[in-house]
Amino acid sequence: MTSDDRARALIEARQARPTAARLQVLRALLDAGRPLSHQEVQQSLELDRVTLYRVLDWLADTGIAHRINAADRITRFSVSSAPHCHAHFQCEQCGRIFCLPEGAPILPGPLPEGFVLREIEMTVKGVCADCAHQG
């Protein structure tokens, strides 16, 4: 399935209209393979800032994408896996953020009875493979 097909399917699964702007932004997130900031998405698309902010907010509000609030205070967006319960890795040299593979234990044990898990935000910091190789 191409990123075009996947973007359309993700939007239509929410019973929403796949507008040109929604499709463009979602394709950019799918093709990147890593979380992107508003600025990074804007550099690759020809959308005005307001439209881009609205689309990113809509994608996050509908659960198609999720927001990643990093220590550098830049919000990044990534296509969601449901529920969003995986950690991220932020490179201390280049600042890029990567989704870490799912399956690694995030919680040390089960939640207390009656608690409902909705989301986990966890960022691991270090040096990415590209930066480690350069220096």
UniProtKB/TrEMBL annotation:
Stretches assigned to coiled coil: none
GO CC aspect terms: cytoplasm
Residue sites binding Fe cation per the record: H84
Location relative to the cell: Cytoplasm
GO terms of molecular function: DNA-binding transcription factor activity; transcription cis-regulatory region binding; zinc ion binding
Cofactor note: Binds 1 Mn(2+) or Fe(2+) ion per subunit.
Name recorded for this polypeptide: Ferric uptake regulation protein
Native species: Formivibrio citricus
Gene: fur
